[in-house]
Write a structure and sequence with these properties.
Length: 436
């Protein structure tokens, strides 16, 4: 059978990884796919570099439209990134009847609904395993392996850059900017690294997982997003003393009132496997009603780990290309006419536990004032740490861990605590998940 012809848009970090792995493992991949998979055309702005990298094995052009308009191309891989030109190219490729593989979570989180609808109408596949957690086959697990389950929640370390930053800062005492530069050098960070450190990239991925897990449209605009830039070393230390680690988690959970979709720094018990995921590694914990908890771990970024997922999609499309569209796995796991309109909850309506750090004057009765407010707000305390003031100081920290409560209760209680005359400045509030 003649080989499948692939056009690659963008031969940067992931594009080159894909090109190299496909070339290196071509025989093995052909045995699995049933026919050869061949990159015959590459588009990149820097054609000189692209020609050097591809060594004359395929046609190199600087206009991506030449790839998507070429009738010989069966599958287009979009590895440019962003939702400007990449969106135009993906939509045009679909309109031209091409199957699409993309690692572009930003594009899918923002415009997934429109893209999947267009693909559905045209009868082509849009595959995106690499868009969430790099090399970990989490999309396949959620869409296929766990299909018997009613998914209850997902919690994941799904941004390698921030996990790398948190790990290096804690283990090596390096400062934030130095570690971020290293993550950029290693090819983990996004073109705009604020997407990583402000939690946006993780929220893109959590949004995609939420849609697949619960059969709802892709709704990035409803996600609650907090990054790691405001996290303080003091809180990382106190958390450790209480037996917790702080990780940037993407969480989505089904509740009777709606769906929680949030990204924020989170305390998790140090004894959980996921708390020990370090460096650029990713891990996703999925709780299904039948299977219970399952954990997926691996490299979440980098050239070849991400290429592994891109090529898995190429093989899937190659195997399924001749199947009737209605016999393929639906893009968002659920049949398009069976999507739910379950609302995504505002952050004030979520329920979780909290870490509170309160800076107080070291005076008699301070603690009673704080605990009184929490009791009046029906917030119960799970653990507490009261530090002695440092020598010569008149202020100290009280750290409290609460049991589960609604976010709006905690926000109201914090406002009252901050108004106490003995409390200094703002209360630090970090969410806590037991993940049990
Ligand atoms: P890079 O910036 O390394 O690569 C992008 C490539 O696209 C560059 O070679 C760039 O050329 C080229 N390009 C830009 N505009 C055009 C255009 N109009 N036509 C053709 N080529 C163009 O990005 P990555 O490989 O890191 O990321 C690609 C995608 O994969 C992104 O969506 C990213 O979010 C996603 N991803 C990345 C991961 C990673 O570990 N890096 C992991 C998982 C997903 P030039 O450099 O000359 O501008
Ligand atoms: N910038 C992303 C990360 C790349 O650090 O996880 C992988 O999606």
């Amino acid at each position: 059978m003649k080989s499948i012809k692939v056009g690659l848009l963008g031969i940067g970090t992931v594009g080159l990884g894909t090109f190299n792995v496909l070339k290196r493992n071509q025989e093995e991949i052909k045995r699995r796919a049933g026919r050869g998979i061949e990159i015959t055309m590459v588009a990149d702005l820097n054609t000189v570099r692209a020609k050097e990298l591809t060594g004359g094995t395929c046609e190199v052009v600087n206009d991506a439209n030449m790839v998507i308009n070429n009738p010989d191309i069966d599958i287009v891989i979009e590895l440019i990134g962003g939702y400007g030109i990449a969106k135009d190219l993906v939509m045009k490729a679909i309109a031209n009847g091409k199957h699409v593989v993309t690692a572009n979570k930003a594009l899918l989180a923002m415009h997934g609904t429109e893209i999947f609808k267009a693909a559905q109408e045209k009868g082509v596949m849009v595959a995106f395993e690499a868009a969430v957690a790099g090399g970990i086959p989490i999309i396949k697990a959620l869409r296929e392996g766990l299909t018997a389950n009613r998914i209850q929640w997902i919690a994941g370390i799904i941004n390698g850059t921030t996990n790398f930053i948190l790990s290096e800062m804690r283990d090596k005492g390096l400062d934030f900017d130095t570690v971020l530069k290293e993550a950029q050098r290693l090819g983990y960070a996004e073109a705009d690294p604020t997407f990583d450190i402000e939690g946006v990239d993780a929220a893109h991925k959590a949004t995609i997982m939420s849609a697949i897990a619960f059969g709802i449209p892709v709704q990035f605009d409803k996600a609650h997003v907090e990054g790691i830039t405001k996290l303080q070393a003091t809180d990382i230390r106190y958390a450790e003393q209480l037996g917790y680690r702080i990780k940037l988690l993407g969480i989505t959970r089904r509740t009777p009132k709606g769906i929680e979709l949030r990204v924020h720094p989170t305390l998790i018990p140090a004894k959980r496997l996921i708390a020990n995921v370090e460096g650029a590694m990713n891990a996703v914990l999925v709780q299904g009603d039948a299977v219970g908890a399952t954990l997926y771990y691996g490299k979440g970024a980098g050239a070849e780990p991400t290429a592994s997922a891109v090529i898995a999609d190429l093989v899937d499309i190659t195997r399924l290309a001749t199947a009737d569209p209605e016999h393929r796995v639906p893009h968002l796991a659920f049949q398009p006419n069976a999507m739910a309109d379950t609302p995504i909850l505002p952050i004030s309506e979520i329920t979780t536990s909290y870490y509170l750090r309160i800076r107080v004057a070291d005076k008699l009765g301070v603690l009673a004032g704080v605990t009184g407010i929490l009791a009046d707000s029906t917030i119960s305390i799970d653990a507490m740490l009261q530090k002695e003031p440092a020598e010569g100081e008149t202020q100290t920290d009280i750290i409290m861990l609460t049991h589960q409560t609604q976010e709006k209760n905690v926000e109201a209680a914090i406002a009252k605590i901050e108004a106490l005359p003995t409390v200094v400045g703002k209360v630090t509030r970090i969410r806590l998940e037991e993940l049990s």
